Amino acid sequence: MEIPTLFEKVYVINLPKRTDKLDAIRLSAAVTGFNFDVIDGQNGTEMSPKALPGVSEHIVNNRLSSALIFEDDADWDISFRSQLINFARGSQWLLDTPSGNTPRSPYGDNWDLLWLGHCALSPIKDDPRRVLLENDPSTTPFIHRFNLGEIPDMTHYDNTTRIVYATDGGICLYAYALSYRGAQKILFHLSMSYYNRPVDFGIHDMCNDHSRGFRCIGVFPQMVDSHRGAGSSLKDSDISKGAMSKGDDVDRKKGFSFNIVRSTRLNVEHLIDREDQKIESQWPGEVPELEGPVKVSFREKFAD
Predict the structure, then answer these.
(1) Which of 125, 175, 200, 257 has its CA 20 to 30 A from that of 27?
(2) Is 271 left (phi over 0), alpha (psi -120 to 50) or beta?
(3) Which of 14, 172, 177, 199 is nearest to 80 (CA)?
(4) DSSP E strand boundaries for the chain
C-alpha cells in the first residue's frame, strides 16, 4: 500500500526563502514514493500566537478526507510506508473498529489527528490500552532516544518495541495527519474562539481537552523527527542569521536526525542508486538484526 492511498493529500510547510530545505525533503519524498504540495510557512519570529499554517484551510476548502503534513526539516526511516501500515492496524483497534468491518479511513473512523512526528507525546492517563509493534528494526534504541517532555513509560518493553496509543497531547509537529473533521475543529478552536498560544500548544490543548471530543492517536518512539544537515548549524533555524550569534555556529561534517534509525536523508544517495546493501544505520551495531515481520499485538492495559 502506497502513501497516496493512505492519505488523500500530503503537504509540506516551508518558508519560501528556504529552497534548500524544500529541495532536500522533495528528494526524500521521491525516493520514498510520494509527492506533496507546498504550503507557505511563517517565520517563527513573525508568527502571531493565533496563526495557523494554511493546511487546515486547504483540507476544509477542498473537502479532503485526510492529509499528512510534514515540516520541511522532517526525516523518517526508510521503512516509513510499512510503519504506517502497522500504525494503521493499531489506530483501528484504538478507535474500536469492529472486526471484519472496513473503515472509510485506513486508520479507522472518527479520528481527528494522528501525531507521527514529535519531541514528546504523553498518553491519556485513564486509557491504559496499548498496541505493541514488536520486533521492529526501526525502533530507536533506548540510549539514543531524545525527547523534550513527557513520554510513555517504556520500561516494560524491549529495545525493539514501538507502541501506538491514545494521546492527550505533545510538543513539536514534525509530522501529523488531520481528518476533515479534525481540520474543521482546529479552525474553529484556533481561529473563531479565544486562544492566545502558539500553534503546537494549540494542538496539544485540543488533544488534552477531552470535552471537545478531539481524538488523537500517537506513536512512540516517533516515526518522524527533525534532521540537522551537514555544514553550518545556522542553517537549522528559519530565524534570520542576523538574529543569531556566530559563536553558536557549528560546522558539521555529517548530518544527523533525531530518533531515526535508518534515515532516509542520510541514505538518499544509496536509495537513488538502489544500493540497498549500502543502507546505513545511524547507530551501527546497536540495533539487532531481526528476523521475521513486525508483530502487532493489542493490550487492554500496559504491562505491570
Answers:
(1) 200
(2) alpha
(3) 177
(4) 9-14, 37-40, 66-71, 74-76, 113-117, 120-123, 130-134, 162-171, 175-179, 216-220, 224-228, 231-232, 251-252, 256-257, 295-299
Half-sphere exposure of 293 (CA within 13 A, CB side): 7
* 3-state secondary structure at position 230: coil
Amino acid identity, residue 285? G
- Phi, psi for 69 (deg, rounded to 5): -125, 130
What grid cell was written down for 61? Answer: 476548502
- Cell for 295? 508483530
The number of beta carbons lying within 10 Å of the beta carbon of residue 104 is 11
- Give start and end residues of each alpha helix (H) in the chain: 3-6, 19-32, 55-61, 80-94, 180-187, 199-208, 268-272
Going by C-beta distance under 8 Å and a sequence separation of 6 or more, which residues neighbour residue 53? Answer: 13, 39, 41, 42, 69, 199
Instruction: Kindly report whether the peptide bond that precedes residue 98 is cis, defined as omega within 30 degrees of 0.
Output: no
If DSSP codes are grouped into helix, strand and coil, which group holds residue 46? Answer: coil
Which phi-psi region, left, alpha or beta, contains residue 108 (left: φ > 0; alpha: ψ -120 to 50)? Answer: left
Q: What is the pLDDT along the chain (304 residues), one digit of tens a residue?
A: 556 568 999 999 999 999 999 999 999 999 999 999 999 887 654 444 334 547 899 999 999 999 999 999 999 999 999 999 999 999 999 999 888 888 999 999 999 999 999 999 999 999 999 999 999 999 999 999 999 999 999 999 999 999 999 999 999 999 999 999 999 998 888 776 655 566 667 788 889 987 778 999 999 999 999 999 877 666 666 654 444 445 567 777 899 999 999 999 999 999 999 999 999 999 998 888 888 999 999 999 865 4
Total residues belonging to the chain: 304
Distance CA 32, CA 213 (A): 34
CB proximity list for 268: less than 8 A, separation 6 or greater: 27, 28, 31
